[in-house]
Design brief:
By secondary structure, the protein is α+β, with helices and mostly antiparallel strands. The protein contains eight helices and 16 strands. The relative contact order is 0.16.
């Protein structure tokens, strides 16, 4: 088996020693090349080349951003940016199922970030040494899992995406964080973005097939549960969402303090089923379209993509094989 280990040395918990241990362990089972990323988009470029060169496995050692880049590189040739997989265009040839395009390298993940949402949702240990052992065991026993992904405006996402408040938070954090990213940093960014939204609070119109349009001020889209983590606490917005279902939508049409406190409390409860008169929620949907009255911030997997006035989100089943 030919494999590439993609290491982000700037991720929160990656170290040179951990990289060497991981590389040595993997090299005992596969023919391995190691690449350290040194610019934004580098992991995506490496993974895209790996897919085109017929590499069998790409292992991402870093945070959720590194994993997202690798996934977008592995599936880069499956979509044309901006098109939709169910619209009959060229976005996802073979009916929107990347697996039908031909062999795509499997994905391995050894967490090295702060939240590691995707890895934790798959049951991969947050400890890099334990995660390495899990990966080696899975390779030895030829164990893998097919996972569904989300696709939004040409960007693949593994666990969540959003428009509005959460994207404002992501953008604010990106300007302030160094190698260390803490729950406190996100909390402060959330409070500041709530009271001083950088782009205001333009109205959002949400459209889901078979449903009446709904209005909102912020929208969170999930590909799995939990939506994210606040330190060690899981944040549950759509508890029934998983890698085997469609997308989950959680949107609020009011952002008064009582509404926000209520839903934050519910989100931090164990697998709570969120309810409220200001809540617009759907589970297991194949497609979501959101239109904004003015440009709003748009994020995928915790990285700010930019500003948008319209985004279509699609669920793509069985998009990728993960060694786990």
């Amino acid at each position: 088996m030919r494999a590439i280990l993609v290491v982000n040395p700037q991720a929160t918990s990656t170290t040179a020693g951990g990289r060497d241990v991981l590389a040595h362990a993997l090299a005992s089972q596969v023919k391995l090349d190691v690449v350290e990323t040194d610019y934004r988009g580098h992991a995506r470029a490496v993974a895209r080349s790996a897919a085109r060169d017929g590499i069998d496995l790409v292992v991402a050692h870093g945070g959720d951003g590194t994993v997202n880049e690798v996934v977008n590189g592995l599936l880069a040739d499956a979509v044309t940016s901006g098109a939709s997989p169910r619209a009959g265009g060229s976005a996802a040839r073979a009916g929107g199922n990347p697996a039908e395009l031909g062999p795509i390298p499997a994905l391995g993940v050894v967490p090295g970030g702060s939240a590691n949402v995707f890895a934790r949702a798959l049951g991969i240990s947050a400890d890099s040494f334990e995660a390495t052992h899990q990966l080696l065991n899975a390779l030895e026993n030829d164990r893998s899992r097919r996972v569904g992904l989300g696709l939004a405006d040409g960007h693949w996402f593994t666990f969540n995406a959003g428009l509005g408040w959460d994207a404002d938070v992501v953008g604010r954090v990106a300007k302030r964080r160094g190698k260390q990213t803490t729950a406190g940093l996100y909390m402060r960014a959330a409070v500041r973005s709530y009271f001083r939204p950088p782009l205001g609070r333009p109205a959002l119109t949400i459209r889901i097939p078979g449903e009446e349009p709904a209005e909102a001020l912020t929208a969170f889209v999930s590909n799995t549960d939990p939506w994210s983590y606040l330190g060690e606490r899981a944040v549950h917005l759509n508890p029934g969402c998983s890698f085997e279902t469609g997308l989950g939508l959680f949107a609020l049409n009011g952002l008064g303090l009582p509404t926000v406190f209520k839903h934050v409390r519910q989100a931090l409860a164990t697998k709570s089923n969120q309810r409220g008169r200001r809540l617009v929620r759907h589970d297991d949907v194949p497609m979501i379209r959101i239109d904004a009255a003015e440009p709003v911030n748009f994020q995928v997997d915790g990285d700010l993509v930019g500003q948008r006035t319209r985004v279509e989100f699609f669920s793509v089943p069985d998009a990728l094989s993960v060694i786990v």
